[in-house]
Amino acid sequence: MAKLQVAIDLLTTKEALELAAKVAPYVDIIELGTPLIKSEGLAVIKAMKAAHPDKLVFADFKTADTGELEAGMAFGAGADLVTILGSVDDATIIGAVKAAKEHGKGVVVDTIGVKDRVKRAQEVSKLGVEFVELHAGLDEQALPGYSIQVLIDEAKRAGVPVSIAGGVNIDTIAAVKQAGVAVAVAGGAIYGAADPAAAAKALREALDAA
Length: 210
Hints:
Number of strands: 8
Strand content: 15-25%
Distance between the termini: 10 Å
Strand order of the largest sheet: 1-2-3-4-5-6-7-8
Structural class: alpha/beta
Shape: globular
Radius of gyration: 16 Å
C-alpha cells in the first residue's frame, strides 16, 4: 500500500505543528521541509516527533557532505527518515546509511538536480537506502512545460522503491500510485489548500482507491 507524505514547507515550528495536527489523521509521513529545518533547527524535529509519535517524521536535510554526522543529528532529534542528495559521492550516502542502521532508522536519497534520475536511483538503491525520491523541486516545477508525467514515467522504469515529489495533487495522485511508488509526496496541494485537512483526506481516499 502506497504511503502518503505531507511536505511542510512553512517556516515556523508553530505553523508546522498546526498544519500537522490538521492532516495527521490522513498521512503516514510528516516531512519537515529544508527551509523549515534551516529556520528552526533540530528543535522542530523534536517537537514534531513528540506531537506525532505514531507518524514517520521525515527530515529533509538534503545533506551534501558529512552524511554519517548529519544523519545522526537528525535521528538523534527523533527523525525516522533523512534525505541525502543523490548528486553527492556514494561515500556520503554510505555514511548516512551507517548512522541509520545504528539508530534503526532510514535514509532517503533525493534526486533533485540529478540529470538521470532513474540511473542514479538504481545505483543508490544498492547502498541500503529505504527509497529514492524522484523529485522535481519548486524551481524546476516553475519552468515552462514542466509535467509530473516525467516523474511518473521514471518511476515505472526505475524498478526500485521510489517516491514522487513535484506536483502530486488530486488530479495526478492516481497515476502516481499506478506508477508503483512506495510513497506519494504532496506539499502545496495540502499546505496551500483553503482547508488542508479536507485536501489531505481527499488525497488519502484517492490514493487508496487508485
